[in-house]
Specification:
Mean pLDDT: 78
Number of helices: 2
Order of helices and strands: HH
Strand content: under 5%
Shape: rod-shaped
Distance between the termini: 116 Å
Radius of gyration: 64 Å
Low-confidence stretches: none
Number of strands: 0
Structural class: mainly alpha
Length: about 210
């Protein structure tokens, strides 16, 4: 700041030239002092910034070190936790597999028993069906035999004058009987084939 005024007493003693010289000297001294002060402040500021930077670097290094240590601890904890979880999962999977194996064994045993029961029931049913068919065939055969005998007896009573007609009639009856018997045989074969197919399918399923 420049000095603009000088006290009157000092001005009278020094004179105008002296006053001007004094003012110039004071201004120069003030300017020089200000420059020195600014240099000192700049130097102090730079040292302060440098010190703060060093302290900040130290703090950052310490913080990084603490963070690294913390991260290492957290990673170790996570590794232990993951190991524990994997061990628990392995035990759980083993238990579930054991339960599933046991359940599968029980289901297989039940299926085996059920298949055995069904096979036995089918065998009984087949035997009963065969018995009924044999009885039915015997009855039908007896009926046919009786009918043939009746027809023969009746035809024998009318044999006079109708020998040719009787031969033709007998031939027709024989053809009809053959077709009926062939139809019965085919039906029996189809039934037996169906039963054998069921038994083969059951054995294939059991295998």
């Amino acid at each position: 700041m420049a000095i603009l005024t000088v006290p009157k007493v000092l001005r009278e003693k020094l004179g105008d030239d002296g006053v001007e010289a004094l003012i110039a000297l004071l201004n120069e001294a003030a300017h020089h002092e200000r420059n020195n002060l600014l240099g000192i402040l700049e130097e102090r500021f730079e040292r302060r910034v440098t010190d703060e930077g060093k302290q900040l670097e130290v703090q950052i290094a310490e913080t990084e070190k603490r963070l690294d240590h913390r991260i290492t601890e957290v990673e170790a904890k996570l590794d232990r936790r993951i190991t524990e979880v994997e061990a628990k999962l392995d035990r759980r999977i083993t238990e579930v597999e054991a339960k599933l194996d046991h359940q599968i064994s029980e289901v297989e045993a039940k299926l085996d028993r059920r298949i055995t029961e069904e096979v036995a029931r089918l065998e009984v049913l087949i035997a009963e069906t065969e018995k009924r068919l044999d009885h039915r065939i015997t009855e039908e055969t007896a009926k046919l035999d009786k009918r043939i005998s009746d027809e023969v007896a009746r035809l024998e009573q009318r044999i006079t004058g109708e020998v040719a007609k009787l031969d033709n009639r007998i031939a027709e009856v024989k053809v009809a009987l053959s077709e009926r018997y062939a139809s019965l045989v085919r039906w029996m074969f189809i039934f037996w084939a169906g039963q054998i197919g069921v038994i083969v399918a059951l054995f294939a399923l059991l295998r």
